[in-house]
């Protein structure tokens, strides 16, 4: 059981190794009561294309990052508290198989495992961690969840006005409320979504009107780069952007997990 193995030497060593792989770029992961349940590579559906990411499942948090050197060095660390996470299976789509959505209050996205068996293992372990954590804390599941962003390639034109064609000048933007890909003219307003950021974030016009009607109106903030001439410049701050998705890895990794490289679940740590 997790409670008996929290302070085990093997668990502490594994967590220390994960911290070492992230180095100074990552947050400390050793905390009282924390157990590393499993780890492995999943394909994350990013804005521009699917990319491999290293995932670490703890009994209270899901951690992932970019792979710099496999099993040795990672960066762009992200932490998702499991009490705010929900899973949703997705259907196979061409070469993208064995996927599910990881939905949370701050960030949501789709991942794919190498096989159907590994998908089942990942989802079962994550859901077990979530249910045990909620039962232990007495908290209720989060409801104010962030959207899964529509990939850029699926939106050649603005999903709002259905007119603007995206080009190097007319750039794509994502609504932080619904996840749709929209043009600058259809997403010139911002709204405070506390679960995602402490600053007002970009939303499409439809979501802004809906939010304003239900939560009270905020003064819209219009990006000065939106104009009739000249190239548009994305003014979104790093806290609002999906910055890890557009960073190229420092190595040439595969777009999909290697079927010969299976995830590791530490069954002795979790039963």
Describe this structure in words.
- Helix content is 19%, strand content 24%.
- The chain is built from four helices and twelve strands.
- It has helices spanning 2-5, 9-22, 116-137, 205-215, and strands at residues 36-45, 50-58, 61-69, 73-81, 86-89, 99-103, 109-112, 173-174, 181-182, 189-192, 200-203, 264-265.
- Strands 1, 2, 3, 4, 5, 6, 7 and 12 form an eight-stranded antiparallel β-sheet that branches. A two-stranded antiparallel ribbon has the order 8-9. The protein has a two-stranded antiparallel sheet with strand order 10-11.
- The chain starts with a helix and ends in a 6-residue tail after the last strand.
Cα-atom radius of gyration:
20 Å
SS summary, helix count: 4
How many strands, what sense, and barrel or not for the largest sheet? 8 strands, antiparallel
- Main structural class: alpha+beta
Would you tell me the overall average pLDDT? 84
> What is the percent of helical residues?
10-25%
Strand content: 15-25%
What distance lies between the first and last C-alpha atoms, to the nearest angstrom?
A: 6 Å
The helix/strand order is: HHEEEEEEEHEEEEHE
Number of strands: 12
- Shape annotation: globular
- Regions with little confidence, pLDDT below 50 for 5+ residues: 217-255
* Oligomerization state: single chain
């Amino acid at each position: 059981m997790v409670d008996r193995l929290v302070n085990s030497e093997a668990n502490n060593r594994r967590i220390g190794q994960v911290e070492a792989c992230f180095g100074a770029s990552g947050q400390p992961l050793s905390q009282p009561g924390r157990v590393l349940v499993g780890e492995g590579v999943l394909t994350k559906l990013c804005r521009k294309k699917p990319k491999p990411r290293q995932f670490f499942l703890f009994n209270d948090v899901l951690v992932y990052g970019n792979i710099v050197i496999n099993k040795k060095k990672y960066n762009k660390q992200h932490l998702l508290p499991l009490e705010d996470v929900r899973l949703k299976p997705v259907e196979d789509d061409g070469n993208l198989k064995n996927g599910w959505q990881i939905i949370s209050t701050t960030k949501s996205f789709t991942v794919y495992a190498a096989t159907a068996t590994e998908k089942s293992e990942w989802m079962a372990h994550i859901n077990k961690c979530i249910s045990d954590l909620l039962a232990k804390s007495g908290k209720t599941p989060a409801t104010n969840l962030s959207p899964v962003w529509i990939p850029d390639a699926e939106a050649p034109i603005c999903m709002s006005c259905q007119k603007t064609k995206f080009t190097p000048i007319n750039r794509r933007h994502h609504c932080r409320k619904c996840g749709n890909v929209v043009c600058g003219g259809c997403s010139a307003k911002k709204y405070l979504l506390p679960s995602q950021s402490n600053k007002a974030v970009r939303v499409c016009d439809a979501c802004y009107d809906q939010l304003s009607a239900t939560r009270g109106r905020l003064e819209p903030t219009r990006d000065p780069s939106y104009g009739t001439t000249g190239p548009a410049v994305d003014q979104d701050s790093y806290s609002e952007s999906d910055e890890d998705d557009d960073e190229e890895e420092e190595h040439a990794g595969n777009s999909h997990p290697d079927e010969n490289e299976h995830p590791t679940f530490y069954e002795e740590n979790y039963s």
